[in-house]
Structure formats: structure tokens, C-alpha cells
Amino acid sequence: MNTLNSLKLLRDTGIGSSPNIVLPGIYLQLNERYYFEFFIGGEKILFSPFYSILNGTLSSESKSFFEDNEELLDQIKEFSIKYLFFFSSIIEENFPYLSQPNDIVIFRYVHKSDTSFEIKLYAHNEAEVDKFYNDKFYIGRSFINLINFYPDKMLIPAYLRSIYDQNIKIQERARLKINSYIDYTDELQEINELCQEVAAEDCKPFPTPSRKEIFNSSLKDFNLFLERIIEINEVIVELKEIIQDFETKLRINGENDFVKNLIKFKKDILNLYQYLHKIFNIISYFHLLKS
Predict the structure, then answer these.
(1) Which residues make beta-bridge pairs with 36?
(2) How far apart are CA 90 and CA 105, in angstroms?
(3) Where are the alpha helices (DSSP H) in the chain?
(4) Is-contact 46 54, C-beta < 8 A?
(5) From the centroid of its chain, how far is CA 130?
(6) pTM higher than 0.85
(7) CA-closest candidate to residue 275, choices 153, 159, 134
(8) Is 274 helix (H, G, I), strand (E, B) or coil?
(9) Cα dist from 259 to 147, 173, 239, 266, whole Å
(10) Is residue 10 a contact partner of residue 117, using CB atoms and an 8 Å limit?
């Protein structure tokens, strides 16, 4: 199933239900700054907030589909914004890049299976996105199933696995892009080992985040949730520090081509670090209510 067939399935079956909540201001502003991007026919198609095509070319059939299903896009947008509020820290973490009136966010939906997508988010300037599309700034990624609002284990396993997957790409690109690769093998090996440790973390104790399941958890369970978050974040902190030192060394030695890739990787790690803190605070609050 490709992107267009997945969207057609969503049109026919409907988007999953989401909580009826009032979002903070920065999330509400996303409605006017939300630029969809889909891979259709092997090409990236960028849409304005009013669904006019800014980049890429669609077949007449695909173009008709989007013109006839703007309500579906509205629903996907609403669902996704709420989802990111609960299950990521991307928007809060990157507020400085989204605070000005002309700041926009490109939401690139990469189809994975059925109604599941990886969403990659990029910040840009509204006045420049058309002519200078490649100047977009990567701010993070998340993983969403558009018919199921509540992800397995608070999405933590997906984020941890993604760190490991990005590490594999970083290792490959380091070999291709770093001029003095042999001088950095120790740092790359240490990053690889920590990412393997991240991927191996046990996420079974975490609940799937329905309100009922969390409230039914015992105080012992809450303590276990909090302990696991602390343990995972210890590895993330170590990884974050090593990558920062690695980036500094690369910049000093003029390895700027690879630094661009490393910055994206670092952004994913920072977002995960902040998300784990967010989850820690939420579970701590439920713990307090249960006490």
C-alpha cells in the first residue's frame, strides 16, 4: 500500500477519534502554519495550509483526490497536532524556531504501513519556502497511526528504535563523508554501543496511555514506570554529551559536511530526552493522584 492508497483507505474508513481538548496557543497556531508534504508517485508534494500545491507535480487523478478531500486533510491535521501534543516534545523543544509570525512547519508524512506514518517536521520561513525549499530546518520526527490515537507503550519503544536506526545511517554516512574517518572511530564506536543499549531497553513496564489503564496501575507500577524512565534517560544523557563533544571536534577539524547529518541525529536525541521528562512529569502526577 502506498501513500495515496492509505489516504483513500482513511477517506473510506475515517480518521480515528481523538480527545476533545483545548490546546496551548503554540499548538493552535500550527493550524495556520501547517504545510503537508507527501510522497506521491516517487515525488515530494508540498501543500500550503489551504492545500494549493507549492512543490512537485501530481497526476490529474491524484490532484482530483486532494481537491475532493480537503476535509480529510483537515481531520489528519487536527489529529496529528493533538497527537504531537501528547506523544512528543518536538513543538515545545523547538519553540524558538516557531515563535515568529512568518515561521511555518512542514509535516512530511512518510508512509510505513496501512494507516501508519513517520512524520518528519521541518521549520521554514513562509516567504521563502517556495523559492528556497531546501533551506528548511529539521526539528524532529514522530510515528503515528491515523486510526489509533493511543500508541503502544506511550510511543517510547518507537522512539528508542528510531535512535538506533538513525545511528546505523550515521555510521554509514561517517564512512562516506568524514575525510579523516580513522581519527573518529573511537567516538563512533561509543555512539554505536550506546545506541545498541538504547534499543535494548525494556519498555514492557510502560502502559499504553489510555486514562483507564494508567489509573488502574498500582503505586508499585508507577514507581517502576518512573525508575525505567530514569534508567533510559541516563543512557540518553550520556549519548547526548558524547555527540556534543563529537560535534565540537568535527567542527574544529573542518568536517562540516558530516556535521549536518550529526545535527539531525542530535535533534532526535534532544527531543527524546525532553519527551521522557514530559512523560516522567505526567506519570508523577498520576502517582500523586493515586497516593
Answers:
(1) 107
(2) 11
(3) 3-13, 25-33, 60-68, 70-87, 90-93, 156-177, 185-199, 211-215, 219-252, 256-290
(4) yes
(5) 23
(6) yes
(7) 159
(8) helix
(9) 37, 10, 16, 10
(10) no
Question: What are the phi and psi torsion angles at 189 (to 5°)?
Answer: -65, -40
Angle between helices 256-290 and 219-252 (to 10 degrees): 160
Residues 36/109, Cβ–Cβ less than 8 Å? yes
Where do the structural domains in the chain lie, given as residue ranges? 3-145, 152-290
Cell of 65: 483526490
Which one-letter amino acid corresponds to residue 41? Answer: G
Nearest to 74 by CA among 122, 38, 32: 32
**Residue 100: all three cell numbers together:** 515568529
At 195, is the pLDDT very low, low, confident or very high (cuts 50, 70, 90)? Answer: very high
Helix, strand, or coil (residue 129):
coil
**pLDDT score of 280:** 87
Q: Is 223 or 286 the better-scoring residue by pLDDT?
A: 223
Q: Are 46 and 177 in contact (CB under 8 A)?
A: no
H or E stretch including 126?
none
| Contact of 151 with 145, CB cutoff 8 Å | yes
Structure confidence at residue 202 (pLDDT):
81
Q: What is the pLDDT of residues 96-145, one digit of tens each?
A: 878 788 899 999 999 999 999 999 999 999 999 988 898 899 999 999 99
Helices 3-13 and 70-87 pack at an angle, to 10 degrees, of 100
At residue 118, what is the residue type? Answer: E
Grid coordinates given for 290: 493515586
